[in-house]
């Protein structure tokens, strides 16, 4: 065989492998409805992260208090504790698309209200607290519907891939949104960040309205709303694996993601930077999460979920500890990239392993319990992080969280072997 022919064959093999990897990684995009969801959500989530980044820095400019940052995070997440289980019942009883249109529209209105207050130079910290609470109410009904909506968009065979791609679009936004927010905030002010977020919701609302879904068939009603809530809770507590994975999501929310509420203070007081530095820190975590999500999407049909979860659970506290000790921006960015990657290995596999195990008729309620624990834990983590940082400083707060998280990882390895055995 001639040298040129051999090279051509090898190039063809490499090209075929790249094509196969691409198809495996983005398998869910072959579905029309999922494509609409994916691209509409990316646009909307970029806006959401722009607002989140700008709001955090604005709060710190107005108050100069890490504790107030934690308070805003707690107030914004409090509705998750109060209403997410009701959101799960709604996600099982109502057409999920209709529910999502309502919640996304409410979020858009709240973004425009915050933008108007900021444009008029009237915005005060208490305004932000009220709007954060109302946004949290919308999120409490949005999240269970959004998480359980995936099986209306793809087949069960591609469910794991779709969950990973959901994380991918979320983390693309985590990279792009804070970076754009930092530049927009510096050039035009926070008001334009909030305005652009309001506009971005149009993309996902239009995408939802354009979907071609099967007619909604209400599930049989077996009792009151309270009874439905009880059924979902019993299901979770009766399954040790689901209960373990749900609990791990809560710990990650408190001890890892709750610490992220301190990033505006970290950027200004520890790294001596500004709003752009804050944007880079948030974007770095998003880069790591994006890498993790794409990796999990490409591994969607490989039976190694438990192994990947275990790797993430050990890497996460190590990098959080490292982040708490280094005060140089490049090292901080590296640590956050790794932290984002490891969090994704744990949280994304939590979601996929639970959804693969749960029955369809209780999916919304079971996922609402998971969502309640995960999203409810983050505001608690924010409140704790802000209060502890106010007294002991940000570095010690992060370091203590890493040590506790490491203890959980060791305990999970020793006493919960079922998790790492999951396929």
Describe it.
The structure is a single chain. With 423 residues, the chain is mostly helical. It has one domain (28-212, 223-420): MFS general substrate transporter like domains (Growth Hormone, Chain: A), CATH 1.20.1250.20. Helix content is 83%, strand content 0%. It has 16 helices and no strands. The chain has helices at residues 3-25, 32-63, 66-93, 96-119, 125-148, 159-188, 190-210, 225-238, 240-257, 263-270, 275-298, 305-325, 329-357, 363-392, 394-415, 417-420. α9 (240-257) packs antiparallel against α13 and α12 packs antiparallel against α13. The longest helix is centred in the N-terminal third of the chain and has 32 residues, at 32-63. The radius of gyration is 21 Å and the shape is globular. The termini are far apart. 56% of the residues are buried.
Features:
single chain; 423 residues; mainly alpha; Growth Hormone, Chain: A; 16 helices
Short overview:
The chain is mainly α and 423 residues long. The chain is built from 16 helices and no strands. The chain has one domain (28-212, 223-420): Growth Hormone, Chain: A, CATH 1.20.1250.
């Amino acid at each position: 065989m001639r040298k040129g022919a051999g090279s051509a064959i090898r190039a063809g093999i490499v090209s075929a492998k790249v094509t196969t990897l691409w198809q495996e990684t983005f398998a869910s995009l072959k579905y029309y409805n999922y494509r609409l969801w994916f691209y509409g959500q990316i646009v909307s989530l970029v806006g959401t992260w722009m607002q989140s980044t700008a709001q955090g820095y604005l709060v710190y400019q107005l108050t100069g208090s890490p504790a107030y940052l934690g308070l805003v995070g707690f107030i914004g997440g409090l509705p998750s504790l109060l209403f997410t289980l009701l959101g799960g019942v709604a996600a099982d009883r109502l057409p999920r698309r209709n529910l999502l249109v309502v919640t996304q529209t409410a979020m858009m209105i709240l973004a425009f209200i915050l933008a108007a207050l900021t444009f008029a130079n009237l915005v005060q910290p208490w305004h932000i607290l009220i709007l954060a609470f109302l946004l949290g109410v919308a999120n409490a009904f949005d999240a269970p519907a959004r998480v359980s909506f995936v099986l209306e968009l793809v087949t069960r065979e591609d469910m794991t891939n779709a969950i990973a791609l959901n994380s991918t679009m979320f983390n693309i936004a985590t990279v792009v949104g804070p970076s754009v927010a930092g530049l927009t905030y510096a050039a035009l002010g926070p008001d334009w960040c909030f305005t652009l977020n309001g506009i971005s919701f149009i993309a996902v609302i239009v995408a939802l309205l354009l979907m071609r879904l099967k007619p909604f068939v209400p599930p049989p009603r077996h009792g009151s709303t309270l009874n439905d809530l009880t059924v979902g809770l019993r299901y979770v507590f009766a399954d040790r694996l689901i209960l373990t994975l749900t609990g791990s999501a809560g710990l990650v929310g408190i001890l890892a993601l709750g610490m992220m509420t301190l990033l505006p203070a970290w950027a200004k007081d520890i790294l001596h930077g500004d709003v752009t530095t804050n944007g880079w820190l948030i974007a770095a975590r998003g880069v790591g999460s994006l890498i993790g999500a794409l990796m999990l999407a490409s591994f969607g049909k490989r039976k190694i979920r438990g192994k990947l979860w275990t790797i993430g659970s050990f890497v996460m506290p190590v990098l959080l500890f490292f982040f708490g000790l280094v005060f140089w921006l490049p090292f901080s960015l590296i640590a956050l990239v790794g932290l984002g990657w490891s969090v994704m290995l744990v949280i994304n596999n939590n979601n996929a392993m639970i959804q693969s195990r749960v029955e369809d008729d209780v999916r919304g309620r079971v996922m609402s319990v998971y969502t309640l624990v995960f999203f409810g834990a983050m505001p608690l983590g924010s409140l704790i992080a802000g209060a502890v940082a106010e007294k002991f400083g940000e570095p010690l707060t992060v370091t203590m969280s890493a040590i506790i998280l490491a203890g959980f990882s060791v305990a999970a390895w020793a006493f919960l072997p079922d998790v790492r055995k999951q396929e």
